[in-house]
Amino acid sequence: LPLLEPAAAREVCAKLTEVDQPPSEPESIRQVILLGLKMRRKDAEKEDAAASALGLLGNYLVVSDGSSTQPQLHILDARVGTLPEVGSMPLPAPARHIAISGHRAFVSLGSVGIVQLVELTDPTQPGPAGQLQLSDPLGGHWYSAEKATVSGGIVHVAAGGGKVMRFLAPVGQSPTLLERLTVQGDATAVGFAGRY
Fold this sequence. Notes:
Helices cover 14% and strands 35% of the residues. By secondary structure, the protein is mainly beta. It has a four-stranded antiparallel β-sheet, covered by helices on one side.
């Protein structure tokens, strides 16, 4: 996209919103859309206004901007090529990753050590639905909410030096820490492969 003229880049992003079949490699499509959003939100005087993470909720893109002073979570209508904003809410920090499960977003907020849960039943009115607070098993301060993966109300969080933390986060209830999983080094990503 950076090699294309702005009008051509907008056309590519608009066409991606019209694809009606799942891609064989969704990560590459996600990266193109994220790059398009970064280009769209880029402002010569506000470099940090670019998108820092995104997730997909049905026909809506859930996007964190990269503002260091007033980070926001934006809900954009992906059915329209211009991606109009339909809702937003403030965040404690820019997101590193956004996972969607049901009508909730799990927004990993990096070095703040929090995964912010956001209720998205009504995309025009996103609201806080709890937080997963991370901690360092050695009592230090090296932990970071890098990425969350959700399955059946169980949330696994790659927590940097906090290793992998496993939470129970049922809808409408306060999340609780279940256990911490030890891994070699720092945990920067987590995912599922079948039963593993």
